[in-house]
């Protein structure tokens, strides 16, 4: 082996250790939610599910690093110390050695069993939606999402932010300065409380979509005619972004997801405000002259607008009749 070749090997070995260390250093430095430029590792996320996935991934990474260093180290030593120019002759005593073959079969099996524990226990917890405090129904459409807070009578659609949509159709090259989180903004965000086990039921109305917010630690298919389940318990307030993760048509890339996790008190007041928006206006009394019909509250969503308009209409007629 030439000295140059040896240097390369040493460099490769050093890199194989340095990269995971760098990954580890980045993880402790960077925020949990959005990917950063030059981020090497997956994000840790903000739910117990994502922590389990991250921890299983890190254990597997370090096991791979140790195996890599041992195997490539042994190869390097063998090639360097027992080289032909030093008069080495091939060893034949270990050929078809049953004991050795048993050992190098058993060790990988034991490693795989060891790796199966963290991943299997994580998966089992991931599928356990029992004892959830609330349920959100997610329906995928070409090309938007609909969110229904089951039992709360609050529902709305969430689609690509109009500014982002205008930018993408303008044909210009969009930079981060033009639109932060370009194509990852929506008109109506999904508001969820922190420290609450939220069950999701997911389906679709037309083709297969997939609801994916990396910080929550899972991705679930939304299939027409089938209801899938998942859950999340967000531990840190913040904005978490995601996208449809199933090729669902020409605008597949333009149906982002934004989850806004807030404190329980903030969520309760948001929910109350949403319910108030959706309340039908009080019926006008028929005997007395009616007060002018109250203006429908400013609706955030196109769906809410239609509901408010259709609900306002009868009271206007009633007021006209009464007058
Ligand atoms: Cu989709």
Structure characterization notes:
This protein is an alpha+beta fold and 323 residues long. The protein has 3 domains: 3-126, Helix Hairpins, CATH 1.10.287.90; 134-277, Cupredoxins -  blue copper proteins (Immunoglobulin-like), CATH 2.60.40.420; 281-322, no CATH class. 42% of the residues lie in helices and 18% in strands. It has helices at residues 3-29, 48-81, 98-126, 162-170, 264-278, 302-322; strands at 134-141, 144-149, 154-158, 190-193, 198-204, 209-213, 218-222, 228-232, 238-244, 256-262. It has a 5-stranded mixed beta sheet. Strands 4-10-9-6-7 form a 5-stranded mixed beta sheet, covered by helices on one side. Helix 1 (3-29) runs antiparallel to helix 2 (48-81). The radius of gyration is 29 Å and the shape is elongated. It binds copper (II) ion.
What are the salient characteristics of this protein?
five-stranded mixed β-sheet; 18% strand; alpha+beta; Helix Hairpins; single chain; 323 residues
- What is the second-level CATH architecture of the largest domain? Sandwich
How many H/I helices?
6
Overall radius of gyration: 29 Å
Order of helices and strands: HHHEEEHEEEEEEEHH
Main sheet: strand order: 3-2-1-5-8
Span of the ends, CA to CA: 102 Å
CATH topology of the largest domain: Immunoglobulin-like
Broad shape: elongated
Q: List the ions, cofactors and other small molecules found in this model.
A: copper (II) ion
Structural class by SSE content: alpha+beta
**Count of domain modules:** 3
CATH class of the largest domain: Mainly Beta
The name of the CATH superfamily of the largest domain reads Cupredoxins -  blue copper proteins
The main sheet comes to:
5 strands, mixed
Average pLDDT score: 84
Q: How many strands?
A: 10
- Contiguous low-pLDDT stretches (5 residues minimum) are 28-32, 293-323
Strand content: 15-25%
Share of residues in helices = 40-55%
